[in-house]
What does this fold into?
Amino acid sequence: MSIQDTIRNEIETNDVVLFMKGTPQFPMCGFSGQVVQILDYVGVPYKGINVLESDAVRQGIKDFSNWPTIPQLYVKGEFVGGCDIVREMFQSGELQSHMTEKGLAVKTPAKA
It folds into this structure.
């Protein structure tokens, strides 16, 4: 199985996937840490994948999404964005609405 197949499988078999530096319990960069805080606050279960454990995954996810930075958030197989996009969506309530529309339960209601 190629690294692209492995990445695609993770994205397709998990509702919410965060490719990040470190783990949800121990983020290794501030940007990954911010997205972890947002996802924890929203209360949606997610899988964190530590790109620091594998150079192939670290480069592979950038190639897969054609997005140059980490972290990268996927919801129901769809690339949502990196830290700045996730933070802006969260602050506007769009992230919570997006997750609700995808059939995921959030613990904080979207802003009106």
